[in-house]
Amino acid sequence: MPKESSPFINNTDNDKGNLYDGKNMALFEEEMDSNPMVSSLLNKLANYTNLTQGVKEHEEADDDEGPAKTKKPSPALGTLIGVYLPCLQNILGVILFLRLTWIVGTAGIMESLAIVVMTCSCTMLTAISMSAIATNGVVPAGGSYYMISRSLGPEFGGAVGLCFYLGTTFAGSMYILGTIEILLTYIVPSAAIFKAEKKEDEAEALLNNMRVYGTCCLTLMSLVVFVGVKYVNKLALVFLACVILSILAIYAGVIKTAFEPPDFPICLLGNRTLQNHNFDQCLKTMEVDNVTVTTKLWSLFCDSPDLNATCNEYFTLNNVTVIQGIPGLTSGVIRDNIWGDYGPNGMLVENKHQASEPAADTSQDIYMPYVANDITTFFTLLVGIYFPSVTGIMAGSNRSGDLRDAQKSIPIGTIMAIATTTFIYISSVILFGACIEGVVLRDKFGDSVKGNLVIGILAWPSPWVIVIGSFFSCCGAGLQSLTGAPRLLQAIARDGIVPFLQVFGHGKANGEPTWALLLTGGICEIGILIASLDAVAPILSMFFLMCYLFVNLACALQTLLRTPNWRPRFKFYHWALSFLGASLCLSLMFISSWYYALVAMLIAGCIYKYIEYRGAEKEWGDGINGLSLNAARYALIRLEEAPPHTKNWRPQMLLLLNLDSDHAVKHPRLLSFCTQLKAGKGLTIVGSVLEGTYMTKEAEVKKAEQNIKSSMTTERTKGFCHVVASSNLRDGFSHLIQTAGLGGMKHNTVLMAWPGTWKQSNDPVSWKNFIETVRETTAAHQALLVAKNVDSFPTNADRLGQGTIDVWWVVHDGGLLMLLPFLLRQHKVWRKCKMRIFTVANMDDNSIQMKKDLQMFLYHLRLDAEVEVVEMHDSDISAFTYEKTLVMEQRSQMLKQMQLSRTEREREVTPPPVCRAHSLQQCSNRPSTLCPKWVRVVFGLSLLFFTVTLVWYRNQSNVRRMHTAVKLNEVVVNKSQGAHLVLLNMPGPPKNRGGDENYMEFLEVLLEGLNRVLLVRGGGREVITIYS
User: Fold this and answer.
1) pLDDT of residue 2
2) Which among 574, 566, 995, 984 has a CA at the least distance from the CA of 786?
3) Looking at 928-1002, which runs of residues are DSSP E strands?
4) Is the dihedral of CA 550, 551, 557, 558 positive or negative?
5) Confidence band (pLDDT; 50, 70, 90) for 884?
6) Can you give the pLDDT at residue 36?
C-alpha cells in the first residue's frame, strides 16, 4: 500500500539498496539510505501509473480466474467520457422530469430563475473549490471523501464523509420513488395495489403503493448490484442516452409549439381546473338526437343524471370552459406565469383570468374532481425540493483514478457540465413558462391532461419519449446510488477513523462491499417508507449541502494558510469565492429547512466528537492542523505582548519527573496531582533529564518520552512532554526551567517531588540538585511546589470523603497558598474537602483582630474557609533543639572533612572524633582536627542521660532556625495531622551555600510527622485579587 507521505504513489521498499552505485557521489553515500538520488526519483515518477478505483477493481477481480492473472492496462478516460457525461447524467434527473414544471407554475418564472441561479451558483462555486483541491496532487479512491478528509482532517473528513454517504443513500431512495411514481402514475396506473374509493383517500393510497412497490424495487436493485455491478456500469451509457434524448425531445417540442401547438384541452369549471380522468367531453349537457342529455361531468357534481337533479352549488353557478394546455411560444402566456401562486394544502388550482361565481358553501369542494395542492407550498420548500437536481457534481472527482489526466479533466469537465445543466435549467424555466398554461404547470400529477406527465405533453414526437426516458433515467440513477454509496462507506470504514464502522470495510473476496450494501439498503428503505418525493428531497439536500460547504471551507482554508503543499494546477480560484460558496451552502441549508439543517449539523457534530474521542489517530497533513498552528502562533504573539493580569493568572506547570533505571516514571502520583490541580486547564509541561549526551542517549530519550506519555495518558494529564539529555542533572533541570515553553506560553510554576532518600544517599548530588532547583525557580521568579510523600497522594479514581485541606499561612507569597486549595477543590477528588487556614501570631500581635481581618480578607476573595490564628509563645530553646542542631552540624562537618572516594567513604564507619573535654582549657589545647573552632561541648559522664550546653557558637542562626522548625512542626502536627493535605510556606535556602545541608535538615524537621504535605514558594507576584 503506498504511503501518503511519499512523493509518488507506487513507492515500495523493494529497491532499497539499489539507490547508489559508483564513486561519483561518494560524498553523499551515507545519506543514500534515507534520501534517494534525483535520478532514482525521476525514474520512479516516469514509471508512475495511477490507481484504478471504484468498481473497476471488482470487475477485474471477477474476470481474473486461475492462478495466472493477466495484468490489465491502466484506464485512460478523457474529459468528455470520464467527467463531462457522468456529471451530466448525475445532475439531470428525476426533479427535472417530475417537478420542474410544478416549481415553475407554483413559484413563477422570476422566483424559479432565482432558485436555479442560487443553487447553480452554489454548485459552480463548489466546483471551482473542488477543482483546486482535486488538482493539488493525486486523488486516490474515495473521491470527495478523500479530498475533504485529507484537507480538513479525520474528524471533519469522517463527519462530512458520512453525511455525503447518507445524502447518496437518500438520493437512491428519491430515484426509486421517482421510478415508482412514473410507473404507477403515468405508465400502468392499473397496477396500483391500493385503490382509493373516495377522492380524499387518493393521496394515502398513492403513498402506500409507493411504499410497497418502492420496497420491491429496492430489493431488486440491491440484488442487481450484489450479483453483478459490472452490468450497472455497462448500462450507464443506455441511461445517459435516455436522458439526452428526453431533453432533445423537450426542446424539439418547444420549437414545434411556435408553429403547431399540440392539442391538449383543459376543462375549467368557472376558474377551477378539473381532473380530466372520468369524462371525455367538457360539457354539462349535450344534444343527442335533438334530446338534451347530461354528460359524465354532470354525474360527478350531481346526485343523479337527470336534468332536475340536485347539483353542487358552484357547478350550478358557473359554466365549463375549454382552454389549451399548451398555447405555444407565441401565445403570450409567459405574462401570466411571471409570478408565483403559493397556497396551503388543498387549495384549488384556479385560472385567475376566468370569470367565476363563488359559492356560499365550499365544504364539499374537497370531494369534487378539482385539481388541488397536495402540500402547502412556499418558496423555501421549493428550494429544498429543487436542490437535488443540481447535485451530482462529484461524479468526475469520484472517477479520478480512471482518468488519463485527472488534473486537467476534472476542472474542465465538471465546470462545463455545470454550465451546460445551468443553461438547460434556465432555458427550461423560461420555455415552460412561455409555452404551458399556468394551471397545467401547477398540476403536479397531470390530472387535468388525462393523467399525462406535464413535461411529456410538451415533448415531440410523443409524450412516451419523456415517460420512458425519465423512467430509465431514474432507474439508472438509483442503481448508481446503490453502487456508489456502499463503496463510499467502505472507504470510510477502511480508513479506520470510525471504530464502529470497521465491519463495513469487509466484503466479498473481490472486495465487493457486501455489509455496506446491506446497511445502504436499510437506510434507503427509510426514505422509501417516507414515500413522498417532496419529503425526501430536502433531506438529501441537507447532506449534499453540508458536503459542499466543507469542500468550499477546505479550499478557503488551504488558500489562506498558504501551506507549502498547496500548489493546485487549477489557477482560477480564490479564497473569497470559496467563502462565498460556503456561505451560500449554509444559507441554502436554512432556507430549505431550518430543522433539517439543525438535524444534519447535529449528526455531523456527533460524528465529529465521536471520532475526536474514540477514532484512530491519523496524521494526514490536513488544513485544520495548519489552522491550529497559525492560531497558536497568533495567540503566542499576543500573549507575549504583556504578562497576564492577576485575574487571569493560573498555574502553568512545569512538572519535573524522576525516572528509574528502566526510564519509567518513578512517581506517577505526581502526574495525578498535577491533573487534579489543573482540572485540565492551562499549560502543563512534563520534563525530565537523562545524564549524558544526546548523540549517545537518543534512543533512551525517545523511550523515556514514550513512557512519560503513556503515564500521562493513564493519569489523564493533558500537556506536553520534554526529555533532555545533559552532561549532568543539575544543568539539565536548569535548562528546562529556563527554556521550557514558547513565547508567552511559558510555565510560571514548577512542581517536583521531595527527595525522600537524601539522607540515605552517600552522594550529596541529589539534595544539592534539589536546592539548586529551588534557587533557580526563585531567580526566575517562578512559583515552586514540592510534594512530600507524593506516593500517598490520591489517584484520579479516588474520592476523598469529608476532610480538610489545611493551609498554614506563615508569610505572604502573593496569595498562591489561598489559590491552590480553591483549584484543587474544583476536581472531583477533592470536592468534598473543606478548606482551613491557619496563620501564626506572635506575642505582640492581636490574635482576635488578626482573625477578623483574615475572615474579611477571605470574604473579599470569595473563598469559603475556616480561619484559625495560632499563637506561638516565645520560649527558651530546648535541649532537644540543641541536640538536633548538634547532630545536624556533626553530619555537616563530617561530610565537609571527608574528601574520600565513594568506595572509601562506604568503608568509613567511625564518626569523626568529638571533643569530650572536661574543661574548656583542655579543649582549647587540643588540635583543631579534634576540637573544631565552631563548637565547644561539655558532655556528661552518663551515655543514657546528658545535657547539651552551648558554650560558644559561631553561627547562632542555625539554632534559631532549628527552634522555629521544631516549634512550628509541633503546632502543625497538633492541628493538622489528620488533614487530607497540608500546604505550608516553603522557607528559602540560605544565601551562603555552605549551609545547604542544614537547610535540608530544617525542612525535614519542619515536615516530620505529616503525611501529605505540599511546600509552596511564591514567584514574587500577586496571583489572587479581591477585585472583579
Assistant:
1) 46
2) 984
3) 981-985
4) positive
5) low
6) 61
pTM, full prediction:
0.72
pLDDT at position 141: 53
DSSP letter (8 states) at residue 350:
B
Q: Where are the alpha helices (DSSP H) in 898-995?
A: 902-907, 920-925, 957-976
Closest alpha carbon to 456 in 269, 188, 246: 246
Distance CA(471)–CA(474), nearest Å, equals 5
Average pLDDT, the chain: 80
Q: Left (φ > 0), alpha (ψ -120 to 50) or beta: where does 153 sit?
A: left
DSSP 3-state of 38:
helix
* More confidently predicted of 944 and 138: 138
Per-residue model confidence as pLDDT tens digits over 184-226: 999 998 888 988 877 778 888 989 999 999 999 999 999 988 8
Instruction: Provide the pairing of β-strand 783-788 with 1013-1017.
Output: antiparallel
Quick one: average pLDDT of 858-873? 84
C-alpha–C-alpha distance, residues 391 and 544, integer Å: 7
List helix spans (H) across 364-462: 379-386, 395-398, 406-435, 438-441, 454-458
For residue 472, the SS3 value is: helix
- At position 696, the amino acid (one-letter code) is T
Terminal-residue alpha carbon distance, the chain? 59
**DSSP β-ladder status, 720-726 and 803-809:** unpaired
Query: Grid coordinates 476532610 are at which residue?
Result: 803
C-alpha cell at 976: 493538622
C-alpha cell recorded at residue 498: 470510525
β-pairing verdict for 981-985 and 803-809: parallel
Residue 756's DSSP bridge partners are: none
Q: Using pLDDT thresholds of 50, 70 and 90, give the confidence band for residue 58.
A: very low
Angle at 787 between CA 784 and CA 793, to 5 degrees: 140
